[in-house]
Amino acid sequence: DTGVSQDPRHKITKRGQNVTFRCDPISEHNRLYWYRQTLGQGPEFLTYFQNEAQLEKSRLLSDRFSAERPKGSFSTLEIQRTEQGDSAMYLCASSSESWNQPQHFGDGTRLSIL
Amino acid sequence: GEDVEQSLFLSVREGDSSVINCTYTDSSSTYLYWYKQEPGAGLQLLTYIFSNMDMKQDQRLTVLLNKKDKHLSLRIADTQTGDSAIYFCAEKDDKIIFGKGTRLHILP
After folding, report:
1. Does the pLDDT value for residue B31 go beyond 70?
2. SS3 letters for chain A?
3. Do the beta carbons of residue A35 and residue A91 sit within 8 Å?
4. Which of A1, A45, A73, A81 has fewest C-beta within 10 Å?
5. How confident is the prediction for chain A on average, in pLDDT?
6. CB-CB neighbors (< 8 A) of B90 in chain A
């Protein structure tokens, strides 16, 4: 079991730049979730996919954010024109479709905006 | 709206039991979870309990659920230095809502 993997682990960029993160879920999981975690807070839900379909997006996901899961396996989260407030840990989780199965998290990508 | 509340800090002596408490608001939650987060890492699922249960035990971990009071607790027996982390309570109906986490500090 390779678990959920995220890349990169850390990203430092200047304000206004675009960034893209990648998540590879556990291979047999068809649900994939993105969360954002800021210092001293719990993770906040951003969006989730079932296979390649994006089924829900949070109000937190502004127009500058876009997520894709083109083949129903790995997913990318892109942030355009980054702002200081985007600095956070971005966590990915996956689960099977069964309603009683928990989500398993990756180690996250920490984004720092200079 | 949905909300999960936890105390922010807990200090416990090594070898004692730790009890981390949580309250939630959504009575339709189907599952309640405890996750552990170590510095710089993602969330590790510790245990979860279905809403029609009132207790679950797994080795050193005991989860108690009082559905009437919407109160969930996690007891860690014989607390070790490796238990030092942030513990998140979370409720799930259609999506997971996390608390802000309780930082567990182990005293020698």
Report:
1. yes
2. CCCCEEECCEEEECCCCCEEEEEECCCCCCEEEEEEECCCCCCEEEEEEECCEEEEECCCCCCCEEEECCCCCCEEEEECCCCHHHCEEEEEEEECCCCCCCCEECCCEEEEEC
3. yes
4. A1
5. 93
6. 42
Mean pLDDT for all residues in chain B: 91
Task: Give the gap in angstroms from C-alpha A78 to the nearest C-alpha of chain B.
Answer: 20
A→B contacts (Cβ < 8 Å), by residue, are 4, 6, 40-45, 48, 56, 91, 93, 99-100, 102-108, 110
Tell me which chain B residues have a C-beta less than 8 angstroms from the C-beta of A104: 45
**Mean pLDDT (whole number) for A68-87:** 95
Task: Report residue B1's pLDDT band, with 50, 70 and 90 as the boundaries.
Answer: low
Q: To the nearest whole angstrom, how far is the Cα of B60 from the nearest Cα of chain A? A: 20
* Residues in chain B, overall count: 108
Summarised one tens digit per residue, pLDDT across range B84-98 is 999 999 988 767 889
Cα–Cα distance measured from residue B9 to residue B82, given in angstroms and rounded to the nearest whole number: 16
Interface of B with A in 43-102 (CB under 8 A): 43-45, 48, 50, 88, 90, 95-101
Summarised one tens digit per residue, pLDDT across range B55-79 is 999 999 999 999 889 999 999 999 9
Task: Tell me the chain A residues in contact with residue B96 when contact means C-beta distances shorter than 8 Å.
Answer: 45, 103
